[in-house]
Amino acid sequence: MAAMESTGPYWKPLFNIFELEGIDAIVVNAQHMKAVPGRKTDVKDAEWIANLLQHGLLRASFIPNKEQRDLRDLLRYRKSKVEERARDLNRLQKFLEGANVKLAGILSDINGVTGKRLLSLIVSDKDVNLESVAECRDPSVKASAEELLLSAEGIISQLQRELIRATLENIMELGNQIDWLTKLVEKHMCGAYADAAKALDELPGIGIASAQVIVGEIGIDMKRFPNEHHLSSWAGLCPGNNESAGKTKSGRTNQANKVLKTTLTQCAHIACRDKKSFFYAQYQRLVVRRGKKKAIVAVAHSMLIAIYHVLSGKTFKDLGSDYYCQFNTDKKISSYLKQLSKLGWKPPASVIAG
């Protein structure tokens, strides 16, 4: 049996060889087996790891099979391209603001049909007039051609046009790459992985792209995790433990799987907007006391627990936005009546007599 510490991607070549030869190998988090400071060399590190392995003191990290590892690389590459396109869109908006072009104030998406047409018109040598803007306007856009013309007229220098043109070309190229990667994902994510992604797509706030990332990171075999709490800890979405002398110092989450954590956080933001879901009720209950960020992490934690049970073969059933209203009904009524009485409200005489 072999053991190694996880140092970036450098453990992967050795692990692939061990896996091919049928040798049992484990990868361990380097933070879990730090040696005494001042006595660290590569040789002593190897001796220390071997000594810990011999006494069974190493905790192996979760390493998926080769198929899932390849799928992970593909999905993470697509995610990085989507983030890169978002950065270029923000950069494009910065250039437009510098040129007094206010399309973002009129259009909800400057990368939409109307936005692309107007930007192509702006960077071209053609005149920006009411007739040309009307030709760029899509019928579904609420803004009129006159409003679009006012937002498109700016103080644009030739250099700014070149920068906007280069950014638009880069955004278009990234869009083509993302489309190609999406087709590649659909080609290679088949069988049980595709079924799991479709099942997660039924949850509020989770789209098919996010579901594919989640399945790629977690896998489909939930037997690797003793329960949903271990999965939450592995994903870095459960409260941390930092207690000494009976005093809790911090409950912040750990680093863990950044790709899964960021994806679930994005899904939690969307799920909180669905006013008919349990996640909306949970967010509204926590945001008042804990703040927006902590409430979002709590919702992401609940979503991951639901994901664990769905991938374990259970059917998702939304508890509904009125879930918390089912508990302590009498106490809540009494509390609300007291608050109303403080504001000057008096119950009707018929209610008092009754």
Distance between the termini: 78 Å
The beta-strand count equals 4
Strand order in space, largest sheet: 1-2
What summary fits the major beta sheet?
2 strands, parallel
Unreliable runs, pLDDT <50, ≥5 residues?
none
Helix segment tally: 15
| Beta strand % | under 5%
Structural class: mainly alpha
Helix fraction bin: 55-70%
**H-E string:** EHEHHHHHHHHHEEHHHHH
Count of the separate structural domains: 3
Radius of gyration, in angstroms, nearest whole number: 27 Å
Q: Could you say which overall geometry the principal axes of the C-alpha atoms support?
A: globular
User: Mean pLDDT score, rounded?
Assistant: 89
Layout of secondary structure:
Layout: E1 2-5, H1 11-21, E2 25-28, H2 42-54, H3 66-98, H4 113-123, H5 130-136, H6 145-152, H7 158-188, H8 192-200, H9 208-218, H10 228-235, E3 243-244, E4 247-248, H11 258-271, H12 278-290, H13 292-311, H14 329-342, H15 349-353
Parallel strand pairs: 1-2
Antiparallel strand pairs: 3-4
Which properties best describe this structure?
4 strands, two-stranded parallel sheet, two-stranded antiparallel ribbon, mainly alpha, 354 residues
